[in-house]
Structure formats: C-alpha cells, structure tokens
Design a protein that fits this description.
- It is a single chain.
- With 208 residues, the protein is an alpha/beta fold.
- The chain has one domain: Uracil-DNA Glycosylase, subunit E (3-Layer(aba) Sandwich).
- Helix content is 33%, strand content 15%.
- The protein contains 6 helices and 7 strands, in the order ββααββαβααββα.
- It has a 5-stranded mixed β-sheet with strand order 3-2-5-7-6, sandwiched between helices. A two-stranded antiparallel ribbon has the order 1-4.
- The protein is globular.
- The two termini are 30 Å apart.
Length: 208
C-alpha cells in the first residue's frame, strides 16, 4: 500500500499552517506488518527533515536516538518499519508558531483518522507531544468514543493505562526535531515511554 494514495489533503484550508511543508509519507508499506504507530506533532518545516527523508533528516536522527535509548538499536527508519514500527505526524503541514490552531487540529484529524484505518494490526499508539494527543482525542470523540487521553500535563498522566478500541495508547513528549535532548529529564521519559510501548506490542525481540 502506498500511503499517499489514501491520505491526501486537496483543499488546504488551514491558512495558519505552513502549507508549503505539507508531507504525507510517500512509501510502500505492508499495513498488516505494523504493530506500533508513533504519531508526533507536525510535519517538518523543511521536507528533507521528515522521517523518511534519510537517516540524516532531523526527525529521523532524533527518533532513532530515542529508540536506541529505549533499548532498540535500529540503524535506520526502514529498519524500524521492517520490524513493525510506523512513524507519522498528526498534522501534515508544518507550523509557524509554537501552538497549532484548533481549526488545523480538526481538519488534520480527518486525515490522520483515514491513515489509522489502514493499519488494522496496530497494537499500540505512541502520541508524542500535546498536538498528537489533541488530534487523537478529536478522532475518538468524532467516532463517539471516550477520549483516550484525559486532560492534564503529560508529566502527570504518562505511565497511566489508556486504550483506544482495545489498543494501548501511550502519551509522551515530542521526540522529533531540535527540541529533543534540551531537557534531559524529558529525554529519559521519552525512552521509558517508547520502551513501554515496545513491550505493549510484543516487539521486545527487537530490543538489545
């Protein structure tokens, strides 16, 4: 399956988003092989920094570091994908400011919902950052489900047991981009959350 055939934004209504940074993973993937889906906040401002742009891409390099610190020594993003870990963003465009507009969250939640529907074998979701949590909760509410992640700071709620349609959901901090590593305590918590998600999906055999 090629993701871009099913997940597309055609009208670009979000004027407060960086539409020139629009990015949906344009790759072939076997949906039935994916067990863990990591969802971070927004697309990178520069397209060459996105997850599947190569190991030197900023999102790729910080994410690989986070997985190594969680005990999973993958050498590349394709290696993560091969072992059942799919990476995407909640918002498909970049952002101008720190915050993401509510209208953008609402619109992009439709795209992410469409993306989620193509991965029926996923056992757990990692929600990296507040935007990812908000978009995921928006999807659940639209489907008539209770919000998977309760209100509250990530520091207080991470480590709780949360589910969405019988699958585990792990809220955490943003691991993609230049902010990763600035606060060492958050970096450690990200590693812990990724490690817990790996255990929750039965992918422990990947860890070394």
């Amino acid at each position: 399956m090629r993701i871009t055939e099913f997940v597309q934004c055609t009208d670009f209504p979000c004027v407060e988003a960086r539409q020139e940074s629009y990015y949906v993973p344009d790759l072939e993937v076997d949906p039935s092989s994916i067990r863990l889906m990591l969802i971070s906040e927004t697309a990178a401002t520069i397209s060459s920094d996105n997850y599947y742009a190569g190991n030197d891409a900023m999102f790729a390099s910080t994410t690989l570091q986070a997985f190594r610190e969680a005990g999973l020594n993958a050498c590349s993003i394709p290696e993560l994908l091969h072992h059942g870990v799919y990476l995407t963003t909640a918002v498909k465009c970049g952002k101008y400011d720190y915050a993401v507009a509510t209208t953008t969250i609402a619109h992009c939640s439709v795209l992410l919902e469409r993306e989620l529907a193509h991965f029926p074998e996923v056992r757990a979701y990692l929600l990296m950052g507040d935007v990812a949590i908000k978009v995921f909760n928006t999807i659940a509410r639209r489907q008539g489900e209770p919000r998977p992640i309760p209100a509250g700071s990530t520091y207080k709620i991470r480590g709780g047991v949360f589910t969405y349609r019988g699958k585990r959901v792990f809220p955490s901090y943003l691991q993609a981009g230049p902010s990763f590593g600035i606060e060492k305590s958050k970096q450690r918590m990200i590693a812990q959350d990724i490690a817990n998600a790996i255990k929750g999906t039965g992918l422990e055999g990947m860890s070394t």
